[in-house]
Design brief:
With 211 residues, the chain is mainly beta. It has 2 domains: 29 residues; 177 residues. The strands form 2 sheets. It has an 8-stranded antiparallel beta barrel with strand order 2-5-7-9-10-11-12-14. The longest helix is centred in the N-terminal third of the chain and has 25 residues. The chain starts with a helix and ends with a strand. The relative contact order is 0.20.
Amino acid sequence: MRKSLRKIALVAGAATAAIGLTAGTASAVPSTVWTVSPSPADFTAANSGNIVLSVNGIAMTCTTSGASGTMQSATGNPATVANINAINFGAGGSPCTSVLGNVTTVATVPWTVVAADYDAATQVTTGHVGNIDADVTVGACKFRVTGKASSTYTNSTGALAVSSASGDLTVVSSTNCGAAVPVGASPTFKGTYLVKQTGTSVIPTIVGSNP
């Protein structure tokens, strides 16, 4: 009888320990200190692959896009680790295109790069590009998009990958666009930018921690 009770106690103790380990793993504390290196630093970014804004199934594709701004260490969660002070879509001889014609986009900056989670194993920061505000012209159609776009930043490559979810961005005004781009539509914004410290080949890194 005593041996049986002892076995039950051991099993119960092991189960309790396992539950405690699982709970501890699941409730990992998010990063509150974001160390950017170098910091502060100016950066430039160029697209890797196409940058695509889609509205109601209409893809507006840019084969050329670039951005610049500043990066800096920060605290808090979420925290702004970079400001995008300039961003362009298309270039002379390489305009953005769509089935409706060439596309011109003028951004109101700054946009922000916001960090919310960090995976030490992969050195990937998850967050979003925020404060997005842009006026888009396609022929006679003109509309304004505002909101944010989910993103990841990978330290090994300097890749800022942007992929907005439905509802992240909203068309807040629309002129001469009809049903193609109505007010309230939810565009998606997808693409990857490779980031380097301005004038160098140095790839900035972002590391999240919770001291």
